Amino acid sequence: MTTSRIAAGSGSWVHWNPASVGTDVPAADSIDLVLALFEDPIVRVLDTANNYGFGASEERIGVAIREYGGVPDDFLIQTKADRDMVSGEFSGARVRRSLDESRSRLGLDRLPAVYLHDPENISWEQAFAVDGPVAALVAAREAGVIGTLGVAGGPSSLMRRYLDTGHFEALITHNRYTIVDRSAERLIDHAHTLGVHVTNASPYGGGFLTAWPPPTERYAYGLAAPSARHTAEEAASLCRAAGVPLIAAALAFSTDDPRIDRTIIGMRTVDDLRATRDLLAAPVDDALLQALRRLEPDPRGWQDPPQSLG
């Protein structure tokens, strides 16, 4: 896998909710972003998934690949194998269709990196059935259809259980290792010890940590807990004293962690790419980061409840 510490996330290009129609990113903007990423010296990874926008994300990336004449040799496009979003089917057959759909949309014979996506939506027994999704992905890797095989999902204890099977070389955890939520702390430690490639997604918690007062009352997929607001206010005070924007510190909290190999930042337009480059260049000294790490967010406000973390 490439050594880029930042990946551009495409999950917000096209919304799922019919009520959000009209707020989607224009296709031309998405394609322009991909073309800019191909030329960018810093961000060399693009993260997508079969189900993002019911396939629209991969389709737009595929258009950009064709316009560019292929994917640059040092650039990684990673996608995820998904369940059927209408029926909920997540069988081996569905995974094979998911891979075929992704290859067709992207125009790639081989998918360099694929993650089993959100396996919390099925039981452990379903995931590891004889012709279940895990078996299908392992077979696809052995056949050379995919390269790196990873797992991407929510509950930290479940992600650890998947890693312990030995099938997965890479992990994506999201919204669970930020200034205000440390749900994935032990998971990241464990993955790092195993030699698994660790990607931390959503270091801003869906926008909550981009400014103070926050521009949104939501953290991840729900309302921010009062304890999250309290910790964010403490963090904002530390950042203000250090002369550092909260958003820059929230990004550095992930990118400067030696256990984390890559951080996914949602990008919708070329302007977001430019803004991310500026944030990466912002000086965030170690004293501030250590002070932020010493904050003690109340675990009751985390994405994973304390009792589930062992």
From TrEMBL:
Tell me the domain of life. Bacteria
Give the NADP-dependent oxidoreductase domain ranges.
20-293
Instruction: Identify the InterPro entries for this entry.
Output: AKR, NAD(P)_OxRdtase_dom_sf, NADP_OxRdtase_dom
User: What Pfam families is this protein classified in?
Assistant: Aldo_ket_red (PF00248)
Which positions, given as ranges, span the membrane?
none
What name does this protein carry?
Answer: Aldo/keto reductase
